[in-house]
Amino acid sequence: MAEMDTKALRNVSYGLYIVTSGDASRRNGQIANTSFQVTSQPATVAVSINKQNLTHEIIEQCQAFGVSVLEESTPMPFIGLFGFKSGRDLDKFASVQADTGATGCPLVIDHAIAVFEAKVVAKLDAGSHTVFLGELVSCRVLKKAEPLTYAKYHQNKGKEPKTAPTYSPPEAAAAEKQGAAPVKKYVCSVCGWAYDPAKGDPDGGIAPGTPFEQIPASWVCPVCGAGKADFALQ
Ligand code: FE
After folding, report:
1. How many angstroms does the Cα of residue 114 sit away from the middle of ligand 1?
2. pTM
């Protein structure tokens, strides 16, 4: 029987991108770790997008997509805005600097070191996701900085939403940590980030050593911006 150790897949490297689509009437963008160049002549790129996501619906409609390559210093709440919130509930572009590309697609400029846009030339139904293949229409470099890798994002306490192509359920992840004693933690119900009292949340004004109960009610999740009330003991 063929060996199937899916941990092997965790050794694949990724970056972190905002994939966008839209026109004058509607627009959206989302975090994606799967965006890659496929060929150089013609220059084509691909993205893998969950069928449940609003961005998928808009790419289908507009037949174009944009990709912003995020810089290493991209703050977690910015990633949370595009990664853990739905464009069905809010306009993600309300507080974000964006351009309109030649295809009419919005292109996120904030924290991007490069942006490109492509018109869809083919798509592959991959079950939960669609892989869109796009021919490059425009591309430019915005600044000189290191790109954010998926590994670095995880080091920075980043989590994976359930709609990510590489999502692994917590049960499976926990089962891999053999011998680890279960510790009760307050966990964000929106993004899965766990508050560690020993570390606190210095960026959010919470000193290391602060018990969760003593955090002010106005504090928000550093990853996705959810309120304190969205945390539950697990
Ligand atoms: Fe959160």
Report:
1. 27
2. 0.80
